[in-house]
Specification:
Layout: H1 2-15, H2 35-60, H3 66-86, H4 106-128, H5 134-160
Helix pairs in contact: 1-2, 2-3, 2-4, 3-5, 4-5
């Protein structure tokens, strides 16, 4: 399972921008991301975001926008979980908070949030370019929209600090 996830992650990195040429698109890459790989990567990403924001809150207090977005991450997790039942996919383990590296300042935490949401949007954009069932497409579109909102919130907070 870990080998599959590592392979899938490497494929996603190629899909979201680490391609050999700037004009290369998903259509140019002959890759077949499975539904299970995409769902596992999406859920792991949501687990990691929630855990990271919880660690930041525990260190720096309930600062905006982390206090709002951490709750949204649980909503995103709850959106994905039924799809694992529908497609009979084994749930990945939640992220170990002890393994996360705490940003050294609130400013660094906000910058981390900005980059995480940029990466998240790219991930969902790549997934949405594939042929996936409508229920998964709907979930990924909602999650991408939420990431766009989170990106705006992190960016505003970063700019006014």
């Amino acid at each position: 399972m870990k080998k599959l996830l590592v392979s899938s992650l490497m494929i996603v990195l190629v899909l979201i921008g680490c391609t050999s040429t700037p004009t290369e698109s998903l259509d140019d890459i002959n890759v077949d991301l499975s539904v299970s790989s995409m769902l596992v990567l999406a859920l792991e990403d949501e687990y990691k975001a929630k855990a990271t924001y919880e660690v930041i809150i525990s260190e720096y207090g309930t600062i905006t926008p982390f206090r709002n977005i951490v709750n949204a991450e649980q909503t995103h997790i709850d959106l994905l979980l039924p799809l694992f039942d529908t497609y009979q996919i084994e749930l990945p383990d939640p992220v170990d908070k002890e393994a996360l590296i705490l940003p050294d300042s609130i400013s660094s935490a906000l910058a981390l949030g900005i980059q995480a949401e940029i990466d998240n949007i790219a991930l969902y954009e790549a997934f949405l370019k594939t042929d996936i069932p409508d229920d998964i497409r709907d979930a990924f579109e909602k999650l991408m929209g939420a990431s766009e909102n989170h990106l705006q919130a992190f960016t505003r907070a970063y700019e006014i600090q």
